[in-house]
Amino acid sequence: MLRIAVPNKGSLSGPAAEMLHEAGYQQRRESKELRIVDPVNEVEFFYLRPRDIAIYVASGRLDIGITGRDLLIDSGADAEEILPLGFARSTFRFAAKPGTVTTPADLAGKTVATSYEGIVAAHLAEHGIDASVVHLDGAVETAIQLGVAQVIADVVETGTSLRNAGLEVVGDPIMTSEAVVVRRTGTDGEDPKVRQFLRRLQGVLVARTYVMMDYDCRVEQLEKAVALTPGLESPTVSPLHNEGWVAVRAMVPSKEAQRIMDDLYDIGARAILTTAIHACRL
User: What range(s) does the ATP phosphoribosyltransferase catalytic domain occupy (predicted)?
Assistant: First the structure.
């Protein structure tokens, strides 16, 4: 069986389970379950702390896992990213009291508090900055107020927590992160079970990104319509009973669907419909 590590809690857990369910895999019913077997798909899922997943995968005990890119890099584990999953996106940045640090060079000689010591130490070393790093678990915003550090490095989404703590971001982002599928570095990428798993997840990603659009248009407007809805390879075009009219079907990006519908209507298309795509293979 394919052995897969899945986040057991936190911001990664729910979306990962939802994506796996959409991909046709059985998921646990109780949060206390640490392992389940999906015999139909020949997969065994292990529910682990997100921070530990890259380490388990790197050990070779598990074939692949779902974790955050930030956790993968911070772990220093001998594992690699093979597929970004598009959820749990975040930005990792430095922050300090206003006026105390304005450029990354100002970090020299200061102490940086973070829950991601591996990422910060590597970033500082890469840029030749001599600063101390202190590891703290959980929220690090109070580290400056309590005198533990002069700078923090943490995940920043809206920046509200930083502003409430009287802090501001410093310099460019250290990195951007999202949920990713990881495997042991150097593992043979031709494993058919792993390829099938990745195809299923890629199918979910496409299904979430596109909708199916159907509409009728006059033949003389077909080229303009097709230019608006080129599809992936090309749209499906079928003649209608009424002469001079055709029915067109194509996948379009869901974020652009309303605009495309307006443009189609303006050139004379009618009966314009969109439907959700629940699964696909490209």
Answer: 49-203
Interval 159-206: pLDDT, tens:
778 888 889 888 889 999 999 999 999 887 678 999 999 999 999 999
**Are 153 and 94 contacting, i.e. CB atoms less than 8 angstroms apart?**
yes
Q: Are residues 70 and 191 in the same domain?
A: yes
> 254, 247, 160, 148: which is closest to 210 by C-alpha?
254
Length of the chain in terms of residues written: 282
Q: What CATH number has the domain bearing residue 107?
A: 3.40.190.10
- Contact 36/6 with Cβ under 8 angstroms? no
| Cβ neighbours around 23 below 10 Å, total | 19
Q: 195-222: per-residue pLDDT in tens? A: 999 999 999 999 999 999 999 999 999 9
Domain extent, residue 226, equals 210-276
CA distance 242 to 219: 11
Q: Treating both helix axes as pointing N-terminal to C-terminal, what angle do 192-209 and 13-22 enclose, rounded to 10 degrees?
A: 100
Question: In terms of DSSP H, where are the helices of the chain?
Answer: 13-22, 50-59, 69-75, 117-126, 142-145, 160-164, 192-209, 222-228, 257-266
